[in-house]
Amino acid sequence: MPDSTPLPAPRRSRRKEARPAEVIEAARDLFIERGFAATKLEDVARKAGVSVGLPYLYFENKEGLFKAVVRESILPQFRMGEEMLESFTGTSEEFLRILAEKFWEMERSPSAGLSKLVIAEAGNFPDLARFYMEEVVLRSRRFFARILQRGIDRGEFRPMDVEQMARVVAAPLTMLSLWNRSLRAFEPDPADAAAEPYLDAYLDLILNGLKAVPKDASHD
Fold first, then answer.
1. Number of domains in the chain
2. pLDDT digits (tens, 9 = 90+) for 52-75
3. Is 51 in the same domain as 78?
């Protein structure tokens, strides 16, 4: 009597829904490792374990795939931060301290090399640089501006040009990310390469510069 047990579905059929995510993950790793120009969609397909033509079913071209990498790797972090800010009841200083911790956690993720990649490739791929500016950099500035305005409204931070200060607050974190993936390995003293003391110094400088002056403070 023949065995009527149904055969298991082919591996690719079971994984169909996961294929775009696998292609995006493979592309992210190759973009960061090789650069945008040197990465071919065929290489992405092989790394993802899919047919060479499959990425074209989900992404118009390599530029479209890069945009998907950014949207799937970075933008969810923004959404989490924005949602956290909406419900946060502590002080704005406490929020910035938590944000610095979250930033360092993200720096240890595979996606953290994307900012260096974009800066390195900006001259040759201005459309991608413009996309990254609009989707990531400007959103980051708006997020920091909201935190600063929150602190001002609550009397925790002094009055300031919020838009410009947001750029100042964000810039050292960007610099730390770039440093981690370029010259950090060549620091003569390994202690100087540690990110935690850098973040402590960053918070000390930023938070003391933002603090509101007490109303009863003397004006000597």
1. 2
2. 999 999 999 999 999 999 999 999
3. no
